[in-house]
């Protein structure tokens, strides 16, 4: 439950071995490219240092990576066309490329062989399918003609007139009407095109006005319908001819497909290998643009997990020995260098990374907030939405999402955990689909009814106590993060540092003293308030004094104190609102019980059993959807605004290793 340790590798290799080395880095799928590391390494220094040690062969011929990329794109399109014709699905699978020396030249050779054997048949199938699509579309259009007896052959035979069939939208139809005086033609509506806002028309015009008529139709976005070659007669006859032609084309496609089916399995394997090779080469061309060059060598900087460092070196070692790898751990570098962040959480807390990433990615030197968020969010959601039955609905819904929707596994896991928390607190409240011990005497309960007058103050106070505990931990995380970064000023004297926490806890103790909950003298927390506020106002001069820096205040003294006083006022307001905000935990727990009570009272107003069930069912649906969403949002608000603001910046870079997949 932490952030993976990272190490920055500088890979220096011979230019003639760059291509296979880059391939291996991509196939490893565990290196994160970093081009902004000027503060970590000086590439020019390394190029100069190893230039004489790593020398390329005199026979080495540089690769033109622009041409390679163009070739890959061209051949990839050919592969996709062949697979579409064969009905095959291409899959990105790096396992196909491991353990062999299959290269782009091999892929081109195999592709030429396959294309010569089956390319023409695949092309024929594709063209015939296109013909079928065009015929089906034409059939649907002419099938909408009202008068099926119109013989288009006879209109075609007119000596002085020409005609066009086409479609016009309603808007363009009205524009055509306004241009009737400029149109030397007969316009007749033939029918309404199904599933379209357009209508079918026939335009008959004198041959000497052909250009004039076509220009007007073009301005109206006239969608001409051309009669396919070989069709004649009226619309009914054309439909019959189309059906026969489609049947003939389908038979021809079936014959060609049967021939292709013979070697389909072997072709699928070869085409997949070619496809993956082309994808790999394209990735290499992209990675090549991030490389620094010398006369004989290249330099590439990548981040890897410390646990993957050896495997990366071994992987490169399988293709060449003309390389040198140096390393630097993240902790050895300047704070200006930002290593990527790879979260490492257990099975329970991992789904809550989704909520963390919605806010931002933790930086490498921050504490990962995911475990703390997982525990606190589950507690808050369970307290606010505690019900055995409703929690079970969420749990089952999450289980279904997790198993049925691959892209939503994390969301499903998250919903299962929140549902489990709701079930747990349902036993605390003794609530099953809103029904409590009065309706279900056998249902166990730890505290009794939430709306019991004896429980209401306790539940509200519990929310505040939980808030104080959660905020205390948040302050501790914030102080740790600031001290890790070496920010003494914010860590000790800032509003989210030690002074800020002393102010917050002093304010809480002041309220405790005023309400006589304990016998604590009010003077003690008041002194704490004043001292901590003074430290926050004077945080810059105190820090500079401790660190022996001069001047004590940078900039104008007046502007500094004005800004500090306003920040102090903001701190007071934030401290007051922080703990009070957590009252909403108890308030929503009471609201949850009260909302269902309203539906229960409504159901008791009728003697019809079926109507009672319907009212209670609708009440549960409303609570599960609307109130469940509101409670989730309130939980997010408490996390993001009250807790994350104390310790989490979220300005990290997510670990994104180079992968073969698109």
Automatic annotation (TrEMBL):
Residues spanning the membrane: 372-402, 414-435, 455-477, 498-515, 521-538, 582-603, 609-633
InterPro entries for this protein: V-ATPase_116kDa_su
Coiled coil stretches, renumbered: 239-266
Membrane topology: Multi-pass membrane protein
Swiss-Prot/TrEMBL keywords: Coiled coil, Ion transport, Membrane, Transmembrane, Transmembrane helix, Transport
Annotated localization: Membrane
Membrane listed as a keyword: yes
Source species, domain of life: Bacteria
Main localization, broad class: membrane
Family per similarity comment: Belongs to the V-ATPase 116 kDa subunit family.
Annotated protein name in UniProt: V/A-type H+-transporting ATPase subunit I
Species the sequence originates in: Sedimentibacter acidaminivorans
Classification of source organism: Bacteria, Bacillati, Bacillota, Tissierellia, Sedimentibacter
